[in-house]
Structures are given as C-alpha cells and as structure tokens.
Amino acid sequence: NADMGSPYLSPYENPAVHRRVSELIRLHSSNPVDVRRATLGECDLAQASDILDLGCGFGFWAQELAGRVAQGAVFTGMDACDRDEAPYRSCIEAAGRRARFICTNLVSRLPFDDDSFDLVIAAYSLYFFVHILPEAARVLRPGRRFLAVTHSESSFVNLLETLNIAPGSSPLVRRIREFSAENGAAQLARCFTRVARVDYLNSLHFSDSERDDYLEYLRFKLPLLHPGARYETGLPPELIERAALALKSEGRVRVRKDDVLFHCGGPHVP
What we know:
Layout: H1 15-28, H2 35-40, E1 50-54, H3 60-65, E2 74-79, H4 85-93, E3 98-103, E4 117-123, H5 133-139, E5 140-151, H6 157-162, H7 171-176, H8 184-188, E6 192-200, E7 203-207, H9 211-225, H10 237-250, E8 252-256, E9 259-267
C-alpha cells in the first residue's frame, strides 16, 4: 500500500500477524457468511485470465478469486510490503493459478499498457491510494470489471469511544473517509460508467472470556486507531485497563465493522 512505510501500518508488514487477525475477525463476526462469498455471490469471473490486485497483502481476497477465474489465469499482486510475496504466491498457486508480485508504492502511473487486465481489485486498500483510480480504469479492458472493497465511515467508531479515543484524532477514521461506503460510488463514477454495490453488515463481538483475542485485535489495530502508537511496542497499560473494564462491566464488547463491495464496469479515463 502507498503508505506502508508509515508507523501506523507496521502490523501489515508481518503477513503472519495479518493472517492471524483475519482469522480472529472471522471467528468473532456476527455475520456468519464470509465477506468474500457474501459480496461476490454468484459473480461470474470465469473469463478473467489477467488479474491485477492493488494493495494485495498476503492474498486474502486473491485466495477466493483464484477459484473463480479462468484456468491458467495470472494474478499480478502489487504491494509495498515485500514480505507478502511468498504468502501471496502460495494462496494463488494452491488454487492452480499463476502469480507474480511487484513490490512498490502505488503513487503514480501503473507500469502496464492500456487494456491489460480482465479484472482489477483493490480490497481494503483503495483509501491509501484513491488517486490511482484513473489508472485502474486505464489498464482495465472494456467490458471487464473493477472491484473495490472498503469500510463504512461508522466502522470502528464505537471501538474508539469505548477506549476513550476521539474518532477525529484516529488515523483510521481519517483514512477510511478517503474512500468509504458513503463516498465510494461518487468517486468511482468518475472513472466507470457502471457502479453497483453490495453491503456487508457485520460487527465483531468479544466476551470477557475472550479477552486475549480482543487485546490481540486491539494491538493490531492500535497504530491506526491511536496517533503515534506502534504495533511493536504493544498496547499501552491505560488502554489495556480501559479494554478490560469495558469487557468486565458489559460482559462483552461490540466492534461495528460494516463493509461494501463496489462492482464497476465501463472504464473511462477522466
């Protein structure tokens, strides 16, 4: 991702940690259906043979897409974290598809010719480099599809309030507002003639007996929730105390986490 060098994104530089937190999210989600399957539904991607994955991470979305695209399809993953290359390739090759990985910051023109890809996806990443949207449209072939996954601006706000962190001071809240469920369609409409959305309503629930999972989740999110915090230094004692108090007094905590998948077609460069 474009800002991967920023301290508040340090947890994403460790694929094992990122994968573990993805598992925690699925374990504690109120929505029993996996977000990828719920939002993709019966989406027909069988003709997609060249796929571009922007801000690909360790391959969470590519893992699902690999089973839906053409035999012999090639995924091109782009991310600033070079440690994602091995797990990303592994996710795709396990499904019998081919993968390549480009370690780069997405800050300017994409290094591809016009009309190079059948499918372009940016999952939980476009708010780091929303300026790249015209480029995503340029490299997408006519009649093909762009997918963008993001959060609602209301996501995580109740978590911040529980921890006595002002939402306006949170890097995560500011980042989501760059490209969110609320403003994403308008931004996409500048580059695509067709924009549809699928909402995924969800929240995470942690009981007092699941305190370790909750603290692990908080530690991962902390650099994005709290200015100046770093994953490597662990949770500050005062936040551990607030989290424990909330769990004990309420019996459980709820973290709102609503997402949306935008399906886009008809690419045009503004």
